[in-house]
Amino acid sequence: MFPSYIRCIRIILLLVIVFNNNLSIVKGQEPPFPFSIAQYIQITDSLATLRQILAYPGLIEVFTLLDGNASFTPTTGGQKITLFAPSNEALISSGIDLSNVEFMSNLIKYQTSPVAVHSKEIAPYLIVKTLLNDPLLVQLPAGEGQVLYLTKALGGDIITVGNGNLSAKVIKKDIECSNGVVHIIDAVIMPPVSLINTADNLALTQFTRAFTDANLLTDANIIKGVTIFAPTDDAFNKQNILAMDAKGKNSLLPLHIINTLVYDIKDDTSIQASNGEKLDFILKNEGGLNITIYVNNAKVERSVLLENGVMHVVNNVLLPLGQGGEVVHDDDDKKGPKDDKSNDKTKNNANINSEYKHTDKKLVIGAVLGGVCGGIVVTLSSCMLYKWFRAQKNSKFNSPTPVHLKSNA
């Protein structure tokens, strides 16, 4: 009786385990990993190049940081960390001198965050601090660490990590380790560079020329914690700007500088520019899952991190409010985006809700099936035990009395 009962229980438990494992795979999660981040790198073939780099004598501090030794992690405060680990192909094809110990140490720190970051937290974007704070590469207030931009399209699984100019895709996510999380990426994320070099990299020649002529570029390049709005070349070539004399154009440029860090622009806010004028910000749902940022009369086309702050590239030269600087939808649509802002927020919430409601249904189904399976186990246990006790009881009263034969010998 018991062997049949045990086989039945094993089958049911196996079904429960298989279902729960499948549910975890659907959710894109892995079970907790028994190794530290450093140990995971040691046993993962796709991270063999990173493993070799961490073996350099000069990288013992970085290795120990990834291994979770608290004596070497004053910046993490004992908290779990996140490593965005470049694959073998990413490091080999990067063109970086992988033997430069000092640079590789800073590079790995830039791809390490002092907090545990899971993919479910990135919707649609997230700004995270890193462990990179070397003053040769970072000029932020109070020795703050440089940051990373993380983005994920609502309703999709593609996650990008980068500095706004260069980015990498996450090719394996949410690898749980004893001291944090690993995401494997397909490219190396380089630390941000100076305002001057960034403008050059983005071919913002008119911006560079205008700020140089107004004696603003050098100062903006050394301010610790600056926010710059950089118009494109096309913006400077528009008729209303071309018609201005040098004095009029120069008077507008301080409006493009904020002397504080504004990484994350909030909807319906105002911030004071360096000349005391006000900048108004609006977030607009442009259809689908695209959220666009507007500042006064311009649209933010991209945001790029700097070694001393952040640059927001805009499609218009900013004008003061009351002088043509009111927020507009774009160059051809003069209707302000505030008109249907409440509808946009509703759409945004609907998009976010639709992304996660399927996961919630799976969790509910898992809980229900788990309860059903548990009920079946209990019921079968009771039935089997009842039958076994009945059989034992009947065997006492119905078994024949043994007969002892005497020998005649």
List keywords for this structure.
alpha+beta, FAS1 domain, seven-stranded mixed beta sheet, globular, FAS1_domain, Adhesion/Biosynth-related, signal
SS element count, helices: 13
Instruction: State which percent range the strand residues make up.
Output: 15-25%
Radius of gyration: 31 Å
Shape: globular
Q: Segments where pLDDT lies below 50 for 5+ residues?
A: 9-31, 70-74, 329-364, 396-409
N-to-C CA distance: 44 Å
Order of helices and strands: HHHHEHHEEEEEEHHHEHHHEEEEEEH
| CATH third-level topology of the largest domain | FAS1 domain
**How many strands in all?**
14
Q: In the CATH hierarchy, what is the class of the largest domain? A: Mainly Beta
Under the CATH scheme, which architecture of the largest domain would be assigned?
Roll
Strand arrangement in the largest pleated sheet: 2-1-7-6-5-4-3
InterPro entries: Adhesion/Biosynth-related (IPR050904), FAS1_dom_sf (IPR036378), FAS1_domain (IPR000782)
Protein name: 4477_t:CDS:1
Keywords: Membrane, Signal, Transmembrane, Transmembrane helix
Structural description of this entry:
The structure is a single chain. The strands form two sheets. Strands 2-1-7-6-5-4-3 form a seven-stranded mixed β-sheet. The chain has a seven-stranded mixed β-sheet with strand order 9-8-14-13-12-11-10. The C terminus is likely disordered. It folds into three domains: 84 residues; 154 residues, Roll (FAS1 domain), CATH 2.30.180; 141 residues, Roll (FAS1 domain), CATH 2.30.180.10. 38% of the residues lie in helices and 20% in strands. It has 409 residues and is of the alpha+beta class. It is globular. Pfam families: Fasciclin. Keywords: Membrane, Signal, Transmembrane, Transmembrane helix. This is 4477_t:CDS:1. InterPro entries: Adhesion/Biosynth-related, FAS1_dom_sf, FAS1_domain.
